[in-house]
Amino acid sequence: MIEVRVTSVIPAEVGRVWSVIRDFNGMPAWHPLIDDSRIETGAPSDQIGCVRQLTLSDGAVVRERLLSLSDFDRSFAYEIVEADIPLLNYAAGVALDRVTDGEITFGRWWAKFDAPPGKEDELSRLVADEVFQAGFDALKARFE
User: Fold this and answer.
1) How confident is the model at residue 101 (pLDDT cuts 50, 70, 90)?
2) Of 25, 14, 4, whose CA–CA distance to 92 is shortest?
3) What percent of the chain has pLDDT over 90?
4) 39-69, pLDDT tens digit by residue?
5) What are the residue ranges spanned by the domains of the chain?
6) What is the pLDDT of residues 64-83, one digit of tens each?
């Protein structure tokens, strides 16, 4: 099993950052890789078990299920249900922490998954750089 972890410091108060990423259906508003998102069956986007269908900028489609969401911990976890990208047994999560030395946020984004043989490095880089780091970079730019 592959494990990817990316951390970042975002120049904004944690509550402001959480208000942006908390919406499980809101990624197109802040992540450059995501062109469209819709919650299937019209469920609320904070309902555990809801499934979002993401359309990526290259046209690929990824369906993800919300596994947990905590306003107290400012975190959520999700899994891929189906994807055009061969990320197998994919489970991931995001958490935000208040940095006590200033009004900044420490973000953590992690995933565990399997990949087809020979695709491990390529998919690890994709997740780490094009998904996680690109998302954090977009959040940093939004709040600078």
Assistant:
1) confident
2) 4
3) 95
4) 999 899 999 999 999 999 999 999 999 999 9
5) 2-143
6) 999 999 999 999 999 999 99
> Counting beta carbons within 10 angstroms of the beta carbon of residue 134, is it exposed (0 to 12), middle (13 to 18) or buried (19 or more)?
middle
DSSP, res 19? H
* Pairing mode of beta strands 104-114, 2-10: antiparallel
| Residues paired with residue 134 on neighbouring β-strands, in sequence order | none
Q: What is the DSSP string of 85-141?
A: S--EEEEEEEEEEEETTTTEEEEEEEEEEE--TT-HHHHHHIIIIIIIIHHHHHHHH
**CATH fold label, 2-143:** Alpha-D-Glucose-1,6-Bisphosphate; Chain A, domain 4 (3.30.530)
Question: DSSP letters of 27-44?
Answer: GGGT-TTEEEEEEGGG--
The CA distance from 15 to 103, in Å, is: 10
Global pTM reads 0.94
Dihedral of CA atoms 96, 97, 98, 102 in degrees, nearest 10, equals: -90
